[in-house]
Design a protein that fits this description.
The protein has 578 residues and is of the alpha/beta class. It folds into four domains: 149 residues, DNA polymerase, domain 1 (Orthogonal Bundle), CATH 1.10.150; 92 residues, 2-Layer Sandwich (Beta Polymerase, domain 2); 73 residues, Beta Polymerase, domain 3; 242 residues, Metal-dependent hydrolases (TIM Barrel). The chain is built from 23 helices and 16 strands. The strands form four sheets. A seven-stranded parallel sheet has the order 10-11-12-13-14-15-16. Helix 1 packs parallel to helix 6, helix 7 packs across helix 8 and helix 19 runs parallel beside helix 20. The radius of gyration is 26 Å and the shape is globular. The two termini are 47 Å apart. The structure holds 2'-deoxyguanosine-5'-triphosphate, calcium ion (CA) (2 copies) and zinc ion. 2'-deoxyguanosine-5'-triphosphate binds next to helix 10, strand 4, helix 12 and helix 13.
Length: 578
C-alpha cells in the first residue's frame, strides 16, 4: 500500500512542479500544506485515503482528497505524471542539489534554458549564472561546489541505504542449492559509512553455475561480467555487486582477504612473512604451510599469533598490535546489549507516528524504554513544540507510563542550540523533562571557532544531557559544519555531557573515527536512531555496527543500561554522572 511518506512526498513534488510552472501561489501552498497535514496526521491517513474517508480533515480540500484517494488506491496519480511529463527528466536532477529550491531552478530554467546538471555546470563555468538577478558570484560558486560534491559522491552509497538490499541478495545466495556458505565482504562487512560496491563471496562446488544464477537475481539490472568463478552486476539503483566463488577450503582465506582493508591485509601479510608464511586469498603458502590449517577466519589470525579481529576494526588503526597482546582488543558492544534509546520523534513535531505507535514499535524490538525528544519551538519547519505543547506532551507521557510494565517512555526534547549557544527553552522548562538532547539546526555557516564555542556553551548547561548529531552532516549530501571535534569531546568530558551516535542512516554522526578518543576520555555514547517513524528504530543495529567500528564496548554506551539504571543516572546531578 502507498505509505504516508509517499503520499506526502508526492504532494510536495507537485508543489515544486507547480512553482516551476509559475502557477498561482495559493494553489502551491495548498499542496505544501496538504503534505504537512498528511505527515502530521494522528490517524492512519494512508488507510483513510484509500477508503475515501478524508472528509473533514483540516488542510485537505476536496481536490486534494480525490488525488490522495487515487494515489492511495492505485499507487499513481495521473495529475502528477502529466505534470512531470511537461519537464525533461534530467531537470529533476537539479532538485537533489543542496541549496537549490524551486524558485532558483525556475529562474535558471526560464532565463538560461538550464535543463540538466550538465547545463547548469556549463552556465556556472562561463559566468552566466552570476549575471542572473538574484544570483551573483557567491551563489554561482556555491552551486558549483554543490555540483562538485555530487560528482565526488556520484558512485558511492550510504551503508544504511543498501543494508536491506544487501541482506536480501545474501539470503537468496544462501538458499541456492549449490552454495554452502555465503558472506558479504569488503567495506560493507567493515561497516564503512559509505561504500563503492558490494563484494559477495560464496563457497561452492559449482562456481560457474552460481555465477550465472547470481546474474539472474531479481535485483540485477545489468550484467557487467560473468565468468567461471567471478561475476559483476549492476542493480537498479546503480550499485555494483561483485561475486567470487571459491571452494570450501578457500572460503575463510578469501573472506579474510576480500574483507580488507587493504592496509589491514598488508599488515597481516608482513606478520605472516616473519613466520615464513605467505598469505593470499587462497591460503597459506611457503615452507611449513601444509602444517597451518584454518577452518575459519579465527584460524588464520590464530596461525599468525593473533586474537580474532572483528571485521569492523580492520582498518590498520592499531588493531593488529592490539590483537597480538593479551588484553588489547576491546570486547565490542552487541545489538543484544541495547535496552532502550533516547532521541526519537512523534507526530507532535515532524515524526509520522504517534507516541503510542512509537512505544509499540520499541516494545516489539524488546526495548525497555524509549526516549521521546521532539523538536523545540525554533525548529518551526519541523513543527517544533512550544512550552505549552511540551507540557502537554510531558503529561501525556506520564499517563502513558502510569502503571505500565514493558516499554516505558522518557520525556525529553531535542532542544535547538541557538546561534549564541543558549538554548531554545529556559532552564525552568528543561528542568521538568527527564533529559535533553541539544542539537544545532540553524546558522550552519558560523566559522569553526564560533561554532565550537556555541556547542560547548550549550554543553555547559546542567540540563543538557546529551549532544545530538555533532556535525550535522548528511552522508553524500552535505558535509558537516565547521567544528573542532576534539575540543567538543574535551568539553563533553569536562561537563559530563553524553555524545550521541546518531544512527539515522544518512547521518552516522559523530563519526566512528572519533569514538575511541571520546571513550578514552570517559565520554559516554548514546546510540540514537533519531527515528521519525517506527521503522526508523531499526537503525539501532546500524548504530551498533558503527559503535563497534569506533571500538566501543558495552560499558561505553549509556543505553545498554536498564530502565532503573537510566532513571538513577538522570536523577543524579550532571557533574556526578558516570
Ligand atoms: P569500496 O568497495 O571502495 O567501498 O571498498 P572495499 O574495501 O570493499 O574495496 P574493494 O571492493 O575494492 O575490495 C574489497 C577488498 O579486497 C579490499 O578491502 C581488500 C581486498 N583487495 C582488493 N584489492 C586489493 C589489493 O590490491 N591488495 C590487497 N591487499 N587487498 C585488496
Ligand atoms: Ca567493495
Ligand atoms: Ca569490489
Ligand atoms: Zn536534529
Amino acid at each position: 500500500m502507498t505509505t504516508r511518506e509517499t503520499l506526502a512526498d508526492i504532494l510536495d513534488e507537485i508543489a515544486l512542479l507547480l512553482e516551476l510552472k509559475g502557477e498561482n501561489p495559493f494553489k502551491i501552498r495548498a499542496y505544501r500544506q496538504g503534505a504537512e497535514t498528511v505527515r502530521g496526521h494522528d490517524g492512519d491517513i494512508a488507510a483513510m485515503a484509500a477508503a475515501g474517508e478524508l472528509e473533514g480533515i483540516k488542510g485537505i480540500g476536496s481536490a486534494l482528497r480525490d488525488k490522495l484517494h487515487e494515489l492511495a488506491t492505485t499507487g499513481k496519480l495521473k495529475f502528477h505524471e502529466n505534470l512531470r511529463a511537461e519537464f525533461p527528466e534530467t531537470l529533476f536532477g537539479l532538485f537533489d542539489l543542496q541549496g537549490l529550491g524551486a524558485k532558483k531552478i525556475k529562474a535558471l530554467h526560464d532565463q538560461l534554458g538550464v535543463d540538466s546538471i550538465a547545463d547548469l555546470k556549463a552556465a556556472c563555468e562561463d559566468g552566466r549564472v552570476a549575471g542572473l538577478p538574484g544570483f551573483g558570484g557567491k551563489s554561482q560558486a556555491k552551486i558549483l561546489e554543490a555540483i562538485d560534491q555530487r560528482d565526488r559522491h556520484a558512485d558511492r552509497f550510504a551503508l544504511g541505504a543498501v543494508t536491506a538490499l544487501a541482506g536480501e541478495m545474501l539470503d537468496e545466495l544462501r538458499s541456492h542449492p549449490g552454495v554452502s556458505r555465503a558472506e558479504i565482504a569488503g567495506s560493507f562487512r567493515r561497516a564503512r559509512e559509505t561504500l563503492h560496491d558490494l563484494d559477495f563471496l560464496v563457497a561452492t562446488r559449482e562456481p560457474a553455475l552460481v555465477c550465472r544464477d547470481f546474474t539472474k537475481l531479481p535485483q540485477v539490472e545489468s550484467v557487467i561480467a560473468c565468468g567461471g568463478t567471478k561475476a559483476s552486476v549492476r542493480l537498479g539503483n546503480g550499485l555494483q555487486c561483485d561475486l567470487r566463488a571459491v571452494s570450501n577450503a578457500q572460503f575463510p582465506f578469501a573472506l579474510q582477504y576480500f574483507t580488507g582493508s587493504k592496509e589491514h591485509n598488508v599488515a597481516l601479510r608482513s606478520l605472516a612473512l616473519k613466520r615464513g608464511l605467505s598469505l593470499n586469498e587462497y591460503g597459506f603458502t611457503g615452507d611449513g604451510a601444509e602444517d597451518v590449517a584454518a577452518e575459519d577466519e579465527a584460524g588464520i589470525y590464530e596461525a599468525l599469533g593473533l586474537r580474532f579481529v572483528p571485521p569492523e576494526l580492520r582498518e590498520n588503526l592499531g588493531e593488529v598490535e592490539a590483537a597480538s597482546g593479551e588484553s588489547g582488543l576491546p570486547r565490542l558492544i552487541e545489538l543484544e546489549n541495547l535496552r532502550g534509546t533516547f532521541h526519537n520523534h512523534t507526530t507532535a513535531s515532524d515524526g509520522t507516528a504517534t507516541l503510542e505507535e512509537m512505544a509499540e514499535a520499541a516494545m516489539d524490538l524488546g526495548l525497555q524504554y524509549l526516549g521521546i525528544a521532539d523538536h523545540s519551538k525554533s525548529s518551526f519547519q519541523a513543527r517544533g513544540l512550544d512550552e505549552t505543547r511540551l507540557a502537554a506532551q510531558v503529561d501525556e507521557i506520564a499517563s502513558f507510563n502510569a502503571g505500565r510494565e514493558g516499554c516505558r517512555l522518557f520525556a525529553g526534547a531535542e532542544v535547538d542550540i541557538l546561534k549564541d549557544g543558549t538554548l531554545d527553552f529556559d532552564n525552568g522548562v528543561m528542568e521538568k523533562l527527564d533529559y535533553v538532547v541539544a542539537s544545532v539546526h540553524s546558522a550552519f555557516t558560523l566559522d569553526e571557532e564560533a561554532m565550537t564555542r556555541r556547542i560547548c556553551r550549550a554543553m555547559e548547561n546542567p540540563h543538557v544531557t546529551m549532544l545530538g548529531h555533532l556535525t550535522g552532516r548528511l552522508l553524500l549530501r552535505r558535509d558537516g559544519y565547521a567544528v573542532d571535534i576534539a575540543k567538543v569531546i574535551d568539553c563533553a568530558a569536562e561537563t559530563r555531557t553524553v555524545i550521541e551516535l546518531n544512527c539515522s542512516s544518512m547521518r552516522l554522526d559523530m563519526d566512528w573515527r572519533w569514538w575511541r578518543r571520546a571513550r578514552d576520555k570517559g565520554v559516554l555514547c548514546a546510540i540514537n536512531p533519531d527515528a521519525h517513524r517506527p521503522e526508523g528504530l531499526h537503525n539501532l543495529s546500524l548504530g551498533v555496527r558503527v559503535a563497534r567500528k569506533g571500538w566501543l564496548r558495552r560499558e561505553d554506551v549509556l543505553n545498554t543500561r536498564d530502565h532503573a539504571a537510566i532513571k538513577a543516572f538522570l536523577a543524579m546531578p550532571k557533574d556526578q554522572r558516570e
